[in-house]
Design brief:
The protein has about 160 residues and is mainly beta. The protein has one helix at about 20-25; strands at about 20, 30-40, 50, 55-60, 65-70, 70-75, 80-85, 90-95, 100-105, 115-120, 125-135, 140-145, 150-155. It folds into two domains: about 5-110, Sandwich (Jelly Rolls), CATH 2.60.120.10; about 115-155. Bound molecules: zinc ion (ZN). The site of zinc ion has 8 residues, from loops.
Amino acid sequence: MEKVAIDELDNWMGPADVKRPVGQALGTEHMGVRFYELEPGESTAFGYHAHGDQEEVFYVLDGTLAFETEDGDVEVADGEAVRFAPGEFQRSRNDSDGRVRVLGIGAPADAGELTLLRDCEACGERTDQEIEPTDDGAALVTVCVECGAETGRFT
Ligand SMILES: [Zn+2]
């Protein structure tokens, strides 16, 4: 048996105001579990993305979270859950003016290859991206694979 208090866990750098590694703290072996809190405009993800081998479920605890999906835009309200298959593209966004709290569960824990797409101004289109830490480790940046431009910076 393992038990944790989510408020006491580390807060990971990234696109969400709060991202806590619940599964890592509990020692989950076959799934990833993460707790998020999103300010207006924030996302659980670095961009429109798919995990090669991992299915994901998001359970919205408070607020309403919008998702861009392959089936169009979907709103997921508190008390609702959404599932994405391995290889299926999605990106959440808090389009509300309130805070959103959401639990994300992905299995297996090893998500496989990440395909990440973001709008690149230099290329004028949505392109493949990589996520890299800055030299001082104070931020994560998304970089266009086509042209090398930085398309986002997350602390
Ligand atoms: Zn580019």
